[in-house]
Design brief:
By secondary structure, this protein is an all-alpha fold. The chain is built from four helices and no strands. It has a domain at about 25-84.
Length: about 80
């Protein structure tokens, strides 16, 4: 891989512009934080089992968002927003 220092400022700016026009689909992170996902799911199940707990009606949406961030990283939303 060529070090960035070997590219001119114009070449780097052109590459940034190209990437903005054609965003690259993120790949899953190498070691996702599955422990965090398990915590979220366990908390959801705990709330369902506790008759006094107030469950969040948007829990499924919130869990989906966290899942996407755990698998792809927080920058996933930049990519999704750029193509939708």
């Amino acid at each position: 891989m060529t070090p960035l220092s070997e590219f001119s400022k114009r070449e780097l700016l052109d590459e940034l512009e190209r990437r903005a026009l054609h965003p690259v689909r993120p790949r899953p992170v190498a070691l996702p934080a599955y422990g965090l996902l398990i915590e979220i799911c366990e908390s959801y199940l705990d709330d369902l089992e506790d008759e006094h707990a107030e469950t969040d009606e948007d829990a499924d949406h919130w869990i989906f968002e966290k899942l996407m961030e755990i698998i792809y990283g927080k920058m996933i939303w930049d990519y999704i927003n750029s193509i939708s």
